[in-house]
Amino acid sequence: MITEGKARIEIPEKVFYNPRMKFCRDADMEVFRRLESRSYLDALAASGVRGIRAHLEAGFENVEFNDISKRACETIERNLRLNGIDALVYNRDASALMREKSYHHIDIDPFGSPSEFIDSASKSALRFLSITATDTSALCGSSPMSGLRKYGAYAEKTEYYHETGLRMLIGKIVREMTKYDKYPEVLISWTKEHYYRVHMRLRKSSRGAGKVYEKVGYILHCQKCMRREWKNVFHTPEIFCECGTEYRMYGPLWLGELHDREFVSSLSKDGETGRLFQRIEEEIPAITHYEIHEVCRSLKISPPPIADVINALRDAGYAASRTRFSGTSFKTDADIHEIRRIISDISPQHRVSHRP
Ligand SMILES: C[S@@+](CC[C@H](N)C(=O)[O-])C[C@H]1O[C@@H](n2cnc3c(N)ncnc32)[C@H](O)[C@@H]1O
Ligand SMILES: [Zn+2]
C-alpha cells in the first residue's frame, strides 16, 4: 500500500507504478487545479494513481480510466474502492476508445513514445490535452532516426537538446491536431530526468489551425560558431551561416511558446514543484539556449557564474534569463557574437592564462 498525495494505492506485481514520477504527478495536480476539466480520461492509467489524484486533489468530478491490461483494470477498480471513488474503467486500446468517445481533457502517459496515441487523442480531446513522453533520445536528437520514425522530425544532439525535445513533441502534436481544425496553446511544459511533459489548452478554428504553422518550422544550427536561426514553414531558410559553414537544419519543430506566462504565474511557487514553476515563469521566450560551459570552452576561458552572465547581457541591453532546462544555461536575444564579446568582457579574471 502506497500513499501518494491524497491517494492510497495498491500496486500488485506486473502493474506499472514509478515512484520517481511522483514529482510529475505533484506538478500535474497544481496545473490541474487551475483547469476546469469537465471530463477527464486517464487513457493509460496503470494503477489509476493520476486520475485518482486528479479527482481527490484537483476536484475533477468526472474522471474515467482506461488500460489495455486486464490486471491494470482490476487494480484501478480496487484502488477506486479504496479511495471511495465511483468511476468508469475501460479495458480497451486507448486509441480505439478515443476514436469513439470525446473528453474535455485527455491524459496520455505511455511507456516510451506517445506518438501512436497523438492522432486519436487530438480527435477526442475537446479542451485540454496532457502528454508525457519518455523516449527522450528520439526527441532530443541523440537518436535522429528514432526522431524521424516516431515524430517525423530531424534533429541532432546540441547543447539545447532538452528544448529540442519539447519542441519536437509539441510540433508533432500540432501537426496531428490541425487536421481536426484544432490547435493547441501550450500552458506549461518541462523536462526532468527521463521524461518530457506538456499540458495544452485546445482551440477549435480552421483559420487558427492554419495560422498556427507560423510557429512551426526549422532551427538552423551552425556547428562551427554556435549561431542559430529559425524559420517557419512559410520561409525558405538560408543554407549557410555567416561564418561560411553549412547550417544543420532541425525540424519541423514547434517554434512557439513553451509556456503561457499568465498561466504559470497563477501556479503555486511553494516546494519543489514551485521552484520549477518559478524558473519557467522567469524564462524569456527565446528559441534555443546556451550552456555557459560550451560558450566558455569555445572562448578558452573558465565559466563565470551564470548570474554574472545574465546581468552582463541585461546591462548591455539584451533580454536574458536562466532556463528550465539546467542550472548552467541561459536564454537571450543577443546573437552569438554579442554573447561571446559580453562573456569575455565581464570577467577577465576568469580567463585561462596561456603561458608561453
Ligand atoms: C507508463 S504506464 C502508465 C502509468 C500511470 N499513468 C501512472 O501515472 O502511474 C503505461 C500503461 O499503458 C498501458 N498501455 C499500453 N498500451 C496501451 C494501449 N494501446 N491502450 C491502453 N493502454 C495501454 C500499459 O498497460 C500501462 O499500464
Ligand atoms: Zn557559423
Explain what the structure shows.
By secondary structure, the chain is α/β, with parallel strands linked by helices. The chain folds into two domains: 2-214, Vaccinia Virus protein VP39 (Rossmann fold, 3-Layer(aba) Sandwich), CATH 3.40.50.150; 289-356, Phenylalanyl-tRNA Synthetase, Chain B, domain 1 (2-Layer Sandwich). The chain contains 14 helices and 15 strands. The strands form four sheets. A seven-stranded mixed beta sheet has the order 5-4-3-6-7-9-8, with helices on both faces. The chain is globular. The protein binds S-adenosylmethionine and zinc ion (ZN). Residues 222, 224-225, 227, 241, 243, 245 line the site of zinc ion (ZN).
Concise synopsis of the structure shown:
This protein is α/β, with parallel strands linked by helices. The chain has 14 helices and 15 strands. It folds into two domains: 2-214, Rossmann fold; 289-356, Phenylalanyl-tRNA Synthetase, Chain B, domain 1, CATH 3.30.56.70.
Question: Main traits of this protein?
Answer:
356 residues, alpha/beta, Rossmann fold, Phenylalanyl-tRNA Synthetase, Chain B, domain 1, 2 domains, three-stranded antiparallel beta sheet, binds S-adenosylmethionine
Task: Annotate the secondary structure layout.
Blueprint: E1 2-4, E2 7-9, H1 22-32, E3 40-42, H2 49-58, E4 63-66, H3 70-82, E5 88-90, H4 94-100, E6 103-108, H5 115-124, E7 125-133, H6 136-140, H7 144-151, H8 161-177, E8 182-192, E9 195-204, H9 206-211, E10 216-221, E11 228-232, E12 248-254, H10 261-265, H11 271-282, E13 290-291, H12 292-299, H13 306-315, E14 320-322, E15 329-332, H14 336-346
Parallel strand pairs: 3-4, 3-6, 4-5, 6-7
Antiparallel strand pairs: 1-2, 7-9, 8-9, 10-11, 10-12, 13-15, 14-15
Helix pairs in contact: 1-2, 4-5, 5-8, 13-14
This protein binds S-adenosylmethionine (SAM) and zinc ion.
Zinc ion is lined by residues 222, 224-225, 227, 241, 243, 245.
